[in-house]
Amino acid sequence: MFRNIPTITKNLLLINVIAFLATYVLSNQFNLQEWGKLHFFMAPDFYIYQLITYQFLHADFTHIFFNMFALWMFGCVIERVWGPQKFLIYYLVCGIGAGLCQEIVQYVEYSSSGLAQLSLNSVIPVETNSGAIMMSVGNYLNIWGTIGASGAVYGILLAFGMTFPNERIFIFPIPIPIKAKWFILIYAVIEFVSAMNANGSNVAHMAHLGGMLFGLLLILYWRRHPTNFNIGNGKQFFENMKRSFEARRGPQAPKQSRQTDTRQPGFGPTREDDMEYNRRKQERQAEVDVILDKIRKSGYDSLTKEEKQRLFEASHER
């Protein structure tokens, strides 16, 4: 099963899991989360590389499980449609965008709290579980941090919804399948409402929305500039596949090796061989055309298991 996962999705899963395990294995020697989490950019411990490293760190098992489950479930599909290079760029852009949005939220909090008027060495009272303690502004800002792949994962959810809007999926606790576009819309609304009512929540809801926002902007950019990365919706993907098949369809000029005198038995392929080859090729193309027409009319999920397998095989034929 694991070997069937596309390359980038597989490596992202591995990196996240290894980083999660390393957090606990190295806890006595090195605080990996403190080093790699995305600090507030005004904090002394902020470094630009944290816009990348924070995406591969998680707080607990539940946090990483649901993020990796969504990455596996939707990332495999999107990577197969877009290809590894485009998928990796999209994933990282969504993650970085999510981090930038979280930085903006923290800056608003920083400005409205009056901390901006103080120096980093100023001492302020900070409430903890044990009561109020005195802490410098710099150390207090270092506490502000973000970790998790959620922003990038939410970007992948958006990509799936825009690529396969009518694909039906299950979402707990709704007992019936719903279309992907409604699934994404529901999640976006939930995150927006949660962000407006966060009130000290440890969940970075605005980062989730930021991942979706940057994903949306990147997809719209690619659609307006298809020569940079040929990306479109699900129908465009299959239309491109069909054009590729049609470009290879039809009788081919015989190769030089097939122009030899073939009147002697066993002296190379005959004209009948060429005709039979072209006939089989046209039959296979006709079968693929029927499948692609069915996708355009009823969607990818209307295909039978055999039709999906035939389409997959045809995409790898040369």
What form results from the Cα inertia axes?
Answer: elongated
Radius of gyration, Cα only, in angstroms? 27 Å
Structural class: mainly alpha
Query: How much of the sequence is in beta strands?
Result: 5-15%
Count of separate DSSP helical elements: 12
> Kindly state the mean pLDDT as a whole number?
81
Give an overview in words.
The chain is mostly helical and about 325 residues long. The chain contains 12 helices and 6 strands. The strands form 3 sheets. The chain has a two-stranded antiparallel ribbon. It has a two-stranded antiparallel sheet with strand order 2-3. A two-stranded antiparallel ribbon has the order 5-6. Strand 5 and strand 6 (about 175-180) form a beta hairpin. The model is unreliable at about 250-270 (pLDDT under 50).
Present the secondary structure layout.
Elements lengths: L6 H19 L6 H5 L1 E2 L10 H4 L7 H22 L1 H29 L10 E6 L2 E6 H7 L1 E2 L3 H14 L4 E4 L2 E6 H17 L8 H20 L9 H15 L22 H28 L6 H11 L3
Antiparallel strand pairs: 1-4, 2-3, 5-6
Task: Summarize it.
This protein has 318 residues and is mainly alpha-helical. The chain has twelve helices and six strands. The protein is elongated and about 85 Å long.
